[in-house]
Design a protein that fits this description.
single chain, 475 residues, mainly alpha, 2 domains, 20 helices, 5 strands
Length: 475
């Protein structure tokens, strides 16, 4: 009898090793990042990309700086480590930064598939991955170097959850240690993970009737870390404001609108899946799986609906892990036996599939726009190399740039020049003190025309890529 059981276990292990869908998921997931990487120079609309690479240029070999660096609204040493490692490997060559992000996206999709597989089936995992890859937030994240904070966090979240489930189901010690290590790395990458991972584990254990004091105490640690982070390390991250109800409702409405219109493009599959999921909770043996997915959605949304910070579409990436897993499980279960539910799901799938061409077009248009903007910016800046050393160049001040919605501040621009070996160029925001004017984007050109309509400098260099254009001018 023991031999038979051992043989069954070995067969299961061999079966897992032969799951070629893992390789398929990886290669499908990396297609978009591989297409994006060669077209990127820097995302010049986002100053934090330049700021991070500049920071890495100055601190990439100092481990103390990497560990103690506090960025934005939290303590994220893993992000500092990522950028320091990247700079040590390939300097300021943007291609590899985007490819590095792509590897994390693909790795995340592999573990997302494995979670779907272990919770329900391979089919559920594949559906979850395909849905996630076609969400706008996913390819937008691949277009920005600094989004490694979210992409890296998602990788650690899904891998930690996978090994947590595996440990709970098999009591495999290796899986336990992997889940703990990956969870810690997630906590040190971005703050939402401190809620998502322990909440999922507690809900999963509760639904399986395996919750005990040991697990509760272990899962309380990241909650306490989050409390210390908010109160002592980053007190600017809080619910703030006199009307918390108004803040919550405003952010919740934004999330709902962004989820339907910006992410899934249609409410049909979402609505049907949530309706069927409710039915499965009560009438099918899927309570543990579905409620665990809902735990991811709620805890991922919580930090954003409780703060006054503007919620952006990419902030939905953590919550959508739970959403696509839920939909994958519902669809996979619904196709086991053809009935009314299967018909409803087919209608939802057809509506969602009809959105795919538009989403692919959005991705291509967005990538072309960003690529053209970056190329124009880069080539306009490169034209400064024809100027004499220590020459003065006019660049709009932060006040003017803010007035017209221009995000790349003068400090970031100076950092960018140094990354292009142009530290010798002196940047000034007083027009009278400059001999040359740089307008590295269409918005800069428009601003110059509005702010200085009577000035007629001569053109030294004109750059045009797509609909974006830039100028180097001489007074």
């Amino acid at each position: 009898m023991k031999k038979i059981k051992k043989k069954a276990v070995n067969n299961k292990i061999n079966k897992d090793k032969l799951d070629y869908l893992i390789l398929l998921v990886f290669f499908i997931s990396i297609i978009v990042p591989v297409m994006i990487a060669p077209t990127q120079y820097y995302i010049t609309q986002y100053g934090d990309d330049i700021a991070w690479i500049s920071w890495a240029q100055n601190h990439h070999s100092n481990i103390i700086d990497i560990i103690t660096n506090k960025v934005g609204t939290g303590y994220r040493p893993m992000i500092s480590l990522f950028h320091a490692l990247e700079y040590n490997l390939w300097g300021s060559n943007a291609f590899y930064y985007y490819l590095f992000n792509g590897l994390f996206i693909s790795g995340s999709m592999v573990f997302l598939y494995l979670i779907g597989k272990i919770l329900h089936s391979k089919f559920a995992g594949v559906v979850a991955v395909l849905l996630y890859l076609f969400l706008d937030g996913t390819f937008i994240a691949a277009e920005k170097i600094a989004f490694i904070s979210t992409i890296g966090e998602i990788f650690f979240i899904v891998s930690a959850i996978y090994y947590s489930i595996k440990y709970i189901n098999t009591k495999d010690k290796t899986s336990m240690w992997l889940s703990i290590i990956l969870s810690i790395l997630a906590f040190l990458t971005k703050e939402p993970s401190t809620l998502i991972i322990p909440s999922f584990i507690l809900v999963y254990l509760y639904c399986k009737k395996e919750l005990n004091i040991k697990y509760i105490a272990l899962c309380l640690i990241p909650y306490l870390y989050d409390f210390v982070l908010i109160i002592f390390i980053s007190p600017d991250v809080n619910a703030g404001g006199s009307n918390i109800y108004q803040v919550v409702m405003s952010n919740l409405n934004y999330y709902t609108d962004a989820e339907v219109n910006s992410q899934f493009k249609t409410p049909i599959l979402l609505g049907i899946s949530l309706f069927v999921a409710t039915y499965y909770i009560y009438y099918k043996n899927l309570r543990t799986e579905i409620i665990s997915c809902i735990a991811i959605i709620i805890t991922a949304m919580l930090p954003f609906i409780l703060t006054q910070r503007t919620v952006q579409p990419t902030y939905l990436m953590e919550a959508n892990l739970g959403m696509v897993l839920l939909i994958g499980i519902v669809i996979s279960e619904g196709f086991k036996k053809f009935n009314v539910i299967t018909g409803l799901l087919i209608i939802g799938i057809l509506f969602q599939v009809s959105m795919i061409p538009g989403q692919i077009s959005n991705m291509q248009n967005y990538n072309n726009m960003i690529s053209n903007n970056q190329k124009t910016f880069l080539e306009t800046v490169e034209s400064l190399k024809q100027l004499p050393s220590n020459e003065t160049v006019f660049y709009f001040s932060n006040d003017i740039r803010q007035k017209y919605g221009m995000q790349l501040t003068e400090d970031f621009f100076k950092d960018y020049l140094c990354l292009r070996d142009l530290c010798n160029i002196k940047v000034v925001t007083s027009y009278a003190d400059a001999n040359y004017i740089i307008l590295p984007s269409s918005l800069d050109v428009y601003t110059f025309q509005k702010e200085m309509p009577n000035e007629k400098p001569s053109v030294l260099k004109q750059i045009k890529n797509g609909d974006d254009y830039g100028y180097l001018l001489k007074k």
